[in-house]
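Let us work through a complete example step by step.
Step 1: write down the sequence.
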Amino acid sequence: MPTWLRLSIGGAATLFVGMGLGRFSYTPLIPALIEDGGLSAAEAGSVAAFNLAGFLIGALAAPWLRRRMEEAALLRACLWITLACLFASIAPAGAVWLIFWRGVAGVAMGVMMVYALAVVTRHAPPDRLGAATGIVFTGVGIAILASGVLVPLLVQRGLVMAWTGLALFGAAGVAAALWGWRAATPAGGPPNGRSQSRFRPTPAAFRLIAAQSMFGIGLVPHSIYWVDYLVRGLGESIGIGGFHWVLFGLGAITGTFLWGRLADWIGHRAGLVLVLASLAAGVALPVILPFAWVLVFSSLVVGAQPGFSAIVSGRVHQIVGPEEMPPLWRAMALVGGVAQVVAGYSLVALFEITGSHVPIFLIGGAAMAVGAVVVVDLKRGGP
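Step 2: predict the structure and record it as tokens.
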């Protein structure tokens, strides 16, 4: 097996654990957590918001940690930490307990997002860059699909059983990721960070950061409230909510790879605009036209949102090169994380005030549309 492919599988398994289970597996649990009385609606939203805040902390801490550990070792440590968080979440110990452990999982997720992509893109051949990043982000979709199938089935036997099933899936993901990262070769320069590249502020870099921020804001409605909107907003059953989360996962699995291949075909520049425009429609339309086909469209299209990360990571690689990608990618994760945290807390507060999902999804769709406009004429080495 080619090294780039093995590392891409390792990256997919890492994001399966970190992003897929560490973040998105919580979404289909929200209605059950609220209806079971374990959390109030505000507390359920706060758990998700603290997970986003943890991601920001992880992105901030990534360079400091990198100076003390080699990339593959750092990724392995984050995998074990996330697995511990998944098992800790099984205990029905209330909101504060869940906020803490989901927050820690968010920290590990921030570190994994920065360095998993850096390792994979550094080893990927130029003509396989889209495929490599697409494979990595497919791991997120597999986790979403698994949680969409598992949660509705296991939650019938109690929340403890649902959390346990997710944790066991996490253990399998950790095993696959550890296998993949054994093929990694160290980056140039010692882990003390003296030779690490620094972020260079250019117009193109700032526009990529802005697009990442708009994407982060636009993703908040579906990552927190999609299943809740279907179940408590539209009156559908938890089974229907789980079905749509399965579609969300299918979109992530197939859509991510297809977006990556499309980027290899038409170019990452055009692919970046297309994916953001599609996401804008997918986020906003369900509250404007809540027809069955629109809901299916939204689940599939927004489910394919890792395709944005796959394409934009390839675009960063093209614009600044493999050595300077980690600092720019970290800056994007950092600023995007701030935007997502602010949006997370703000939209949770807005929902508490209005009791309506409509403004939340409209704001998310508008953010995605702004992101598409920002990158519409972004050129390699240009503004």
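Step 3: interpret the result. The chain has 14 helices and no strands.
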